[in-house]
Design a protein that fits this description.
The protein is of the alpha+beta class. The chain is built from 5 helices and 6 strands; from the N terminus they run H-E-E-H-H-E-E-H-H-E-E. It starts with a helix and ends with a strand.
Amino acid sequence: MTCAELALNCAMPGGIMVCEEAGVSAIYAESRSAAYEEMRDIALRAGRDRGVDYDGGCRAHLWAKEAGFEIAHVAAYHPHYLNGPHKKFWNWTLRNATLRLVEKRSLSKDRWKELVDGMTATDNSPHTVVAHCGMHQLIATKPGR
């Protein structure tokens, strides 16, 4: 459940909401990776087409306020990796998420493979940093009766 769904489904008075929501548009590589950029954009577009906001983390506090919560804490962090297993996390995530588009025939298998190979080359470079989603944290309370 996203922070937005959590906030809007909390109609009862009282309670605490603690959530962490991603901002997918923050994914990038430096030195630049066209494959990472294109896969990120494909995933964001696929989310929008399905009515999902993969970039909503920066608005989590607004969703909570709209649902009647009082904001207690907001924070954000943006992990970056030069090496190690975490560097490949978005490669794995984006390749699996976009594979459904190949199955639906809105992305060719050959183009998908090129993009996966490009992300893998980026992940394997000891000189390239991969930035993950910007992660937005929220703690909010809802007044009781």
